[in-house]
Amino acid sequence: MKLKALLVSILAMLAVSAVGATTASAAFALSSEECNEGLVSFCWDVAEPGTLLRELKGKEAATATVTKPTLLEAAVAGGPIHFECLKAKLGAGSEVDQEKPLAEVALVKVTSLETSECKMVKPLNCEVTPEIKTKAIVGDPVSETDEAQGVVFKPSVGTLFVEVKFSGAECLIKGNQQINGEQVCLWLTPLEDLLGQELLCAHTESNLTFGASKVKATFEGELLVRLPTLEAAGDFWDITQA
To answer: In this predicted model, what pLDDT tens digit does every residue of 97-106 receive, in sequence order?
Structure first.
């Protein structure tokens, strides 16, 4: 009997620990109120396509994976530079913050964009660190009433987006180089209720500078953004202006 009681106690402790682990991440509250008459917001439904979109309230942990390698280019005095990264993820603690759906726009708060398997394409006499981590950035809708205009990402503090270290005996840009500015990225299918949404960052939407000379730089890539807690329950989501 003592052994049985001990086992029951251990199982109870494990159950409490598991609950604590699953609730540690931010999770949206699924409201029964319809997404209706308001600003650009994240909404949910139990089926695809969404016919009864409802409000998501609070904060939700966000993740992302690369579906198209990220690429950065700049035309410096010594010739064009071009490096790409094959993988990327959002730093721990990244989330969507939507405390007042429809009344205030949602913010995408990224603690960092962590890219890996990075390599130089041009010039070949330069090398770049294989892992590059941005500063904390925040994404704000370009338009409060038109989800098709996407999200503008910029540093949470100041203008420094990321610092990249170059090396190589014959490399003309060796050392740490700052990339400053902001980047607009577009939701590919914002009005479709899906498990995950594609976010396209095009070079034509870049407002970035490279190095001390502040020459124009461009960034491109494609990410699949997921809301794991919401999606684990089988719920679909979209970004819409109700």
So the answer is: 999 999 999 9
Coil, strand or helix at 27: coil
Q: Which domain holds residue 92?
A: 26-241
**Residue 163, Ramachandran bin (φ over 0: left; ψ between -120 and 50: alpha; else beta):** beta
Residue 156 in any domain: the answer is: yes
Residue 31: band (very low, low, confident or very high) from pLDDT cuts 50, 70, 90: very high
pLDDT level of residue 47 (50, 70, 90 thresholds): confident
**Looking at the domain assignment, is residue 76 inside a domain?**
yes
Tens of pLDDT along 166-213?
999 999 888 999 999 999 999 999 988 999 999 999 999 999 999 999
Instruction: Determine, yes or no, domain membership for 19.
Output: no
Report the chain's C-alpha Rg in angstroms. 21
Which two structure tokens, joined as six digits, stand for 138? 């925040």
* DSSP output for 170-235: T-TT-EEEEEEEEEEEEESSTTS-BSSEEEEEEEEEEEEEETTTTEEEEEEEEEEEE-HHHHHTT-
Compute the distance between CA of residue 164 and CA of residue 162 in angstroms, rounded to an integer: 7
Whether 14 is covered by a domain: the verdict is no
Count of CB atoms situated within 10 Å of the CB of 26: 17
* 106 close to 42: Cβ distance less than 8 angstroms: yes
Indicate the number of domains in the chain: 1
**Which strand (E) or helix (H) includes residue 9?**
helix 2-22
Side-chain-side CA neighbours of 184 within 13 Å: the count stands at 12
